[in-house]
Amino acid sequence: MSEKLYQIISRVMNIDINQLNDDSSPTTISNWTSFNGYVLLDELETNFDVKFSIDEAMDVKNIADIKRHLKNHGVNLDE
Amino acid sequence: MIFEIMDNEQPLSKYILDSEKLETNDFKKKIKIALLSSFTINGLSESLKVKCSKKQISCISYVAGYNQYNQEILNEKSELYNFSPDITFLILDTRSIFGDLFHFPYSITKSAREDFVDKKIFELFNLITKFTENTSSKLVIANLGLPNYSPHGIAEMNTSYSFHDAIIDFNKKLKEKIIDLNSVYVFDFFKFVVKHGEKNIFNFQNYLFGDIKIALDYIPHLANELIPYIISLLGLTKKCIVLDLDNTLWGGIVGEDGFEGIRLGPQPPGNAFVEFQKYLKALSQRGIILAINSKNNFEDAIHVIREHPHMVLKEDDFACMKINWNDKASNMNEIAKDLNIGLESFVFFDDDPVNRELIKQIMPEITTPELPHDPSRYSDVIQSLHDFSVFQITNEDTKRGEMYLQQKKRNEFQNSTLNLTDFLKTLNLEIKIKKSNDFTIPRISQLIMKTNQFNLSTKRYQEEEIKKFSKDEKMLVGCAQIQDKFGDNGITGVFIVNKINSDEWFLDTFLLSCRVMGREVEKAILHYIIDEAKKNNVKRIKAKFIPTIKNKPIENFLPDSGFFLENDFWIYNVEKPFNTPEFLTLRVE
After folding, report:
1. Spatial distance between the Cα atoms of B249 and B270, rounded to a whole number of angstroms
2. B54 and B69 fall within a common domain
3. Are B284 and B215 contained in the same domain?
4. Would you say A29 and A62 are in contact if contact means Cβ atoms under 8 Å apart?
5. Where among B233, B252, B278 does a domain terminate?
6. Residues B250, B292: Cα–Cα separation, whole Å
7. Which residues are bridge partners to B442 per DSSP?
8. Chain-centre distance of CA B306, in angstroms?
9. How many helices (H) and strands (E) are present in chain B, helices listed first?
10. Is residue B428 part of a domain?
């Protein structure tokens, strides 16, 4: 599932998947603008069938945060 | 599966990504789009670019800063005007326009609500005026969506000039204000929300998080609705739908299932085809031409078209019918030739994937949509093409089908008669000579400016000059209206005679529109001129044929009519009797 997450981020941010890690954030990915951030969350909601709360959305600062919130919603990223 | 064809839009992220990789340099059609909005509208320009590229249009866009539309329009030196767009979309939203009144509309009185709407319309109209003063760009303004919410709840419907009434009133007044403006249009955002549903379009989280008032996944849908404005502006509107018959206009195969066996009627599944035919009929009534391209025995198919009680479309609704065993590509070529329309103006609608593939490969200019197996979705396919839109429906549009039909009947008639003279005899041709006056001069001038083929001298005169000639006693200016049994061709002939002296007249201009060429009506017009000369005791009519690349059709007109060559001029001795073919009736107004 982690692979799926990385694929989505890679696609939305238009960046090579190998350049992504848990610390990747708007600071390291130039395409991670605030708007693309919304687009990313929207895509994740659709693909993992979850709904982020506005607090969770505001809290996302890097990929590790996304993983944490997905796990909280019961998405198993280790499969 | 079927769903995919129409409804499954790509996610916005795909458009954003694809828009960066577009290669549009080869596209001949280009458009500059400006987007102004009262909220975050990111992704719309990317969606529009990708969708334009699919229609071979290269699109450059300018997206104004967040909620900067007032400043952009009011400042004459703004980036907007500097960009010089061809078309500008201004997308407003109910929350921004109503401000605090969105939540508290009943904190003020009914008349204050009315005043508020009037004030907002006034402000917006000022903006529009400013915009039209500063740029020649077309302007498309979105009207307001109607929120499901009202603080009055179910009592909303018992409230006079309620919150919802105010929004509807705003939309109505906006439409009234701009309806007479040439370059300003309303985009019915209200209807867009109705189509997709407010619960889908508006997402609280998107809104509160990023002031995104159209949910991200609906941005590509919004782009779909704006594309028709671009299509219309660039003149890419499709003109003709070419239809298959079996399993397209009716269910089943008439050659196998027979007249009684095909599915067409008030009960399902036949009603799907009735519904589709009604939709096509409505399109034809606003100027889209319908044609048939079908592999069938002509007799089988025409029997259904003429006699089937549930055929909505009648023979006369089709401007052209190719029902035979030729391949569909050859038929398409014939249809294009008969209707005199370029291939890029056609939509080909056929349930058979093999035929679609053939047309796609051989004639890529033609739009060939994929069809679902389920005929109940046929109308949807045509609607989702967004290719038939025009800014305005003219009178000529609504009559177009009729004019093509008349042309079709003439052609069919010609094919069914033995020789040309026999054919012309049956046409009941009537030539009405009219003087040049305020009513006829615009058309006379138009013909003089654009007629190339049957034009003796190809002299071009502006309307002002024609007016001057018409007042001049030394000139005879007139035109001819041609009618036949199929209808009125309108004014399609023009002549200008210069009365050089009492003995000699000079035929300065003599032309026919290509619409009426080949029917010998020119003889009747010339006969009129010779008669006029006789009445004035004129001896000779002089003329000069000035050849051009295009006017070969009139090359032999003078010698064929009894003129003889003298030096560089053609001369007709007025005393000589002139014979007009019997099948022509000449009237002088």
Report:
1. 10
2. yes
3. no
4. no
5. B233
6. 13
7. none
8. 28
9. 24, 18
10. yes
Chain A CB contacts of B13 below 8 Å: 11-12, 39-40, 42-43
- Strand pairing report for B184-187 and B240-243: unpaired
pLDDT in tens, chain A (79 residues): 688 999 999 989 989 999 999 999 999 998 898 888 888 998 999 899 999 988 898 899 999 999 999 999 999 887 6
Exposed/middle/buried for residue A35 (C-beta within 10 Å: 0-12, 13-18, 19+): middle
**Chain A residues with CB-CB distance to B210 below 8 A:** 34-35, 38
Residues B73 and B133 in one domain: yes
- Same domain (yes/no): B248, B130: no
Are both B358 and B484 inside the same structural domain? no
User: With an 8 Å Cβ cutoff, are B13 and A57 in contact?
Assistant: no
* DSSP-assigned beta bridge partners for residue A39: none
Give the per-residue SS3 of B372-415.
CCCHHHHHHHHHHHCCCCCCCCCHHHHHHHHHHHHHHHHHHHHH
B41 near A CB under 8 A: no
pLDDT tens for residues B142-198? 999 999 989 999 999 999 999 999 999 999 999 999 998 888 999 999 999 999 999
CB contact under 8 A, B13 and A38: no
Partner-chain residue, chosen from B11, B17, B209, that has the shortest CB–CB distance to A38: B209
Q: Is residue B405 one of the residues assigned to a domain? A: no
Alpha carbon distance B508, B448 (integer Å): 12
What is the residue-wise DSSP string for B429-456?
EEEEEEE--TTTHHHHHHHHHH--SEES
The domains located in chain A, with CATH, are 2-72 (1.10.1200.10)
Instruction: Note whether residue B457 is domain-resident.
Output: yes
Report how far residue A42's alpha carbon sits from residue A36's, in angstroms, rounded to the nearest whole number.
10
Domain ends where: B233, B253, B276? Answer: B233
Question: Half-sphere exposure of residue B81, counting CA atoms within 13 Å on the CB side?
Answer: 16
* Residues belonging to chain A: 79
For residue B209, which residues of chain A lie inside 8 Å, CB to CB? 38, 54, 57-58
Say if residue B281 is in the same domain as residue B226. Answer: no
Full domain range(s) for residue B41: 2-233
Residue B546 near chain A (CB below 8 Å): no
Class of residue B159 by CB neighbours under 10 A (exposed 0-12, middle 13-18, buried 19+)? middle
Among B120, B114, B119, B116, smallest CA distance to B92 is for B120
Strand partners, B548: none
Q: Which of B59, B349, B483 is nearest to B229 (CA)?
A: B59
Sole residue written with tokens 């209206």:
B481
Number of domains, chain B: 3
> Which residue from A14, A39, A54 is facing B12, i.e. has the nearest CB?
A39
Rounded-to-integer distance, Cα B480 and Cα B492, Å: 6
The answer on B566 and B430 residing in a single domain is yes
Kindly state whether residues B361 and B464 are assigned to the same domain: no
CATH code of the domain in which B64 resides: 3.40.50.1110
- Asked if the structure places residue B416 within a domain, the reply is no
Length, in residues, of chain B: 589
Q: Summarize pLDDT for B6-24 with one digit per residue, the tens.
A: 457 898 988 998 998 898 8
First to last CA, chain A: 6
Query: Three-state SS for B135?
Result: coil
